[in-house]
Amino acid sequence: MNAIDTLLGRGEHVRYIGRQHVFVLIGNILTELLLIGVLIAAGVVSQVAFPDKMLAGMQVGVLVLIVCVVISLLVLGSAFLDYLRWSNEQCVVTDRRVILLRGIFNTEAVDIPVERINGVELRQSWVGRLLNFGDIEIMTASESGVSQCRSLARPQEFKRAMDDARHDIERGYAYIDQRDIDAYLDVEDMLPDVDRVSHALQRLVDMRDRGLISREEFEAKKRELLGRI
User: Fold this and answer.
1) 86, 106, 176, 210: which one has the fewest Cβ atoms less than 10 Å from its Cβ?
2) For residue 41, which of 64, 60, 63, 58 has the smallest C-alpha distance?
3) Which residues pair with 102 in a beta bridge?
4) What are the structural domain ranges in the chain?
5) Are 134 and 155 in contact (CB under 8 A)?
6) How far apart are CA 192 and CA 187, in angstroms?
């Protein structure tokens, strides 16, 4: 079970999981790998430059090489932490909220209920449009005001998933648990035919009044139900 699954509520479903673009990770790691290469080269050169010089009973070249190797291992560890940080940083859209996950050892989770989102802004440079990444700013009614997802891969898909979740909340589609639907259908099956049709008609009227179905769909379903009596 991953970190996202432990945060989901009953009947809550993930719509989209966004991550930073892989070029963010590559950029960080390439810099560190370049530094490791420079350190190793410096250690090798020191063997040639100081073949006979001694310091504290050791050849200077060997001492420099050891120092370079130790620093290289530390930089390699930093590169691994960069990967873990990139892998664990996620922007998740569910049918109820947006969850911003960060952290390696101590996970930080920021919840933004969909109904509190006032607006979403997408920013892309020309490089971002070319490589398909960008920054997402989420304007909310909370004290923090603005939450950001930086250098997000496929930001249009993330924004679309968030807009769809907001739309469904406004239309009343969200917060429907499949177990509740199954329980409702079980009750329907136990009712007599007339009562079952009457109950279904009441549900249709409610769905029409809430704008979940059109008037034409309502009339078609009503005729279908009345034909069962």
Assistant:
1) 106
2) 64
3) 108
4) 3-20+91-171, 23-87, 178-226
5) yes
6) 11
Angstrom distance (rounded) from CA 229 to CA 213: 23
For 10-32, how does the pLDDT look when each residue is reduced to its tens digit (9 = 90+)? 778 888 999 999 888 888 888 88
Q: What secondary structure letter does DSSP report for 114?
A: G
Give the N- to C-terminal CA distance of the chain in Å, as an integer.
49
Contact call for residues 201 and 218 (beta carbons, < 8 A): no
Q: Which two tokens stand for residue 160?
A: 């679309």
pLDDT at 161 over 60: yes
* Cα(152)–Cα(209) distance, integer angstroms: 39
The answer to whether 8 touches 99, Cβ cutoff 8 Å, is no
- Assigned CATH class of 3-20+91-171: mainly beta
| Span 176-193, pLDDT tens digits | 454 554 554 454 454 446
- Say which residues have a Cβ less than 8 Å from residue 116's Cβ, sequence separation at least 6: 140, 141, 142
Query: What distance in Å separates the CA atoms of residue 102 and residue 163, rounded to the nearest whole number?
Result: 23
